Amino acid sequence: MSGSTVPPATPRAAPPGQPKIEVAALRKSFGDHAVLRDINFRVDAGQVVVLLGPSGSGKSTLLRCLNLLVVPDGGRVRVGGDGFDFGAGQRLPDRRSLARFRANTGMVFQQFNLFPHMTALENVMEGPRTVRRTPRAEAEALARDLLRRVGLEDRAAEYPSRLSGGQKQRVAIARALAMRPEVMLFDEATSALDPELVGEVLAVIQQLAAEGMTMVIVTHEIAFARDVADRVVFMRDGVVVEEGPPAQVIDAPQQAATRSFLSHFH
Ligand code: ADP
Ligand code: MG
């Protein structure tokens, strides 16, 4: 996984210190259930933010608002140089601007969502081929480089059914990277894995962090969060309860809700 010649993960990355993600006054309800209530946060270029919180606190909805898989009711979402305001008087983005905006983010889910009828290599080539119209040879070279980066160069010709969960998830990461996103979003990427396969996926995420990829990671791997995060954001009931460096939020939480949540992991 090291010593590869692949270009850095974020060729279009802004210099460190510039905001890559900005969320302001973000609101989302499903029916009369307010799932996100006035969320504000910012992720600078190269930063890694880990989102923690109990089930149902709104973590997945927040990640989905960052690529507009979920359309916010109000507030502002910016990723890279691109963004939208939502709420009264705002027009919803049209399909083309939505598609362009979504290309700013690569998302990795708990379920791997690989195309079962395509090899690992074809899965990674698919986005560049169909969305970006990248020529085959170029898309294949990129895909092979990315598979090497996630330690799977020798599995390129395998179909997903012949890969372990950890391998599938590493292919899913390579596939997301193939679109050269500005930021990567991980939603419990290791929660469906057998325990012995978790480490190989976390190692790839850790490597991306070391290369300067901007990331928002939802995880219940607290030790990993402490290692990888520049900042930890703890959510409950659709609000940010507490945020700061891991040494503060994980090791010395100020809020009772954070302490209570973390006590389940000891
Ligand atoms: P988390 O990821 O922190 O577990 P979610 O963002 O998935 O939380 O969900 C927050 C709340 O929003 C939950 O109560 C969930 O049932 C609800 N919810 C999420 N998506 C939808 C949806 N599409 N329709 C209705 N309710 C939803
Ligand atoms: Mg979730």
Automatic annotation (TrEMBL):
Query: Where would I find the ABC transporter domain in this sequence?
Result: 21-262
The cross-references to Pfam families, in alphabetical order and at most eight, read: ABC_tran (PF00005)
Query: What is the protein's given name?
Result: Amino acid ABC transporter ATP-binding protein
Q: Which UniProt keywords apply?
A: ATP-binding, Cell membrane, Membrane, Nucleotide-binding, Transport
Family note:
Belongs to the ABC transporter superfamily.
InterPro entries per UniProt: AAA+_ATPase, ABC_ATPase_HisP-typ, ABC_transporter-like_ATP-bd, ABC_transporter-like_CS, MetN_ABC_transporter-like, P-loop_NTPase
The organism is: Roseomonas elaeocarpi
Query: Where is it localised?
Result: Cell membrane
Q: How does it sit in the membrane?
A: Peripheral membrane protein
The UniProt GO MF terms for this protein read: ATP binding
